[in-house]
C-alpha cells in the first residue's frame, strides 16, 4: 500500500481534499523534488470515516491501482509509438524503398503516441467521475484541531 499522511483541508460530500504532509525522510531523498515538487500538495480522497476539516488522516492508494494507472499513462503511449514506427517503416520500405523510411517511421510513431494520449485523456475524463482510482482515508490520526 502507498500511504501518505495529510490534513483535511476541505470536505465535499464523501470526498475530502487532503493537504499532504512531507515526511522527514523526504529531506534527504534525492527524488524529493519530483515526488513533492511544490510547497503544499493536495489529494482528493474518499472519506468513508467522515473525517472533518483540520483532522490529520492517513490516505492509502492501492498498489494495483497505482500500477494500472502507470501502465495506462506510460505503457500505452510507448506501445503506440513503437507499433506506429514499425508499421510505418514496413509500409515505407515496401512502397518507397529505403530513403526516408526512418523519417516516416518517426513521424508515424509520434502521431500514434499523440493519438494514444488523446484516448487516455478521454478515458481519464470518464473515469474521473467514478471512484475507481481515488485514494481512501483509512485512519484518522488526530482529533479536529
| Mass-distribution shape | elongated
Helix content: 40-55%
Unreliable residue stretches: none
> What is the overall pLDDT average?
85
Helical run tally: 3
CATH architecture of the largest domain: Beta Barrel
Quote the CATH topology of the largest domain. OB fold (Dihydrolipoamide Acetyltransferase, E2P)
The CATH top-level class label of the largest domain: Mainly Beta
Domain count: 2
Q: Helices and strands, in N-to-C order? A: EEHEEHHE
Structural class from helices and strands?
alpha+beta
How large, in whole angstroms, is the Cα Rg? 22 Å
Q: What proportion of the residues form beta strands (DSSP E)?
A: 15-25%
Q: How is the largest sheet built, in terms of strand order?
A: 3-2-1-4-5
Record field, number of beta strands: 5
Main β-sheet description: 5 strands, antiparallel
Walk me through the structure.
- The two termini are 27 Å apart.
- The radius of gyration is 22 Å and the shape is elongated.
- It has a 5-stranded antiparallel sheet with strand order 3-2-1-4-5.
- It is α+β, with helices and mostly antiparallel strands and 145 residues long.
- 45% of the residues lie in helices and 23% in strands.
- The protein contains 3 helices and 5 strands, in the order E-E-H-E-E-H-H-E.
- The protein has helices spanning 32-35, 63-95, 101-128, and strands at residues 2-12, 15-20, 41-46, 56-61, 136-140.
- The chain has 2 domains: 2-62 and 134-140, OB fold (Dihydrolipoamide Acetyltransferase, E2P), CATH 2.40.50; 64-128, no CATH class.
Amino acid at each position: 500500500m502507498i500511504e501518505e499522511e495529510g490534513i483535511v483541508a476541505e470536505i465535499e460530500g464523501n470526498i475530502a481534499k487532503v493537504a499532504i504532509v512531507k515526511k522527514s525522510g523526504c529531506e534527504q531523498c534525492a527524488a524529493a523534488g519530483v515526488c513533492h515538487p511544490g510547497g503544499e500538495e493536495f489529494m482528493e480522497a474518499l472519506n468513508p470515516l467522515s473525517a472533518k476539516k483540520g483532522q490529520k488522516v492517513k490516505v492509502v492508494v492501492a498498489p494495483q491501482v497505482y500500477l494500472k494507472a502507470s501502465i495506462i499513462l506510460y505503457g500505452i503511449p510507448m506501445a503506440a509509438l513503437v507499433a506506429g514506427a514499425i508499421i510505418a517503416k514496413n509500409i515505407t520500405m515496401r512502397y518507397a524503398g529505403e530513403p526516408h523510411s526512418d523519417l516516416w517511421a518517426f513521424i508515424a510513431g509520434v502521431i500514434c503516441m499523440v493519438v494514444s494520449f488523446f484516448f487516455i485523456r478521454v478515458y481519464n475524463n470518464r473515469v474521473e467521475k467514478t471512484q475507481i482510482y481515488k485514494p481512501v482515508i483509512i485512519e484518522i490520526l488526530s482529533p479536529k484541531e
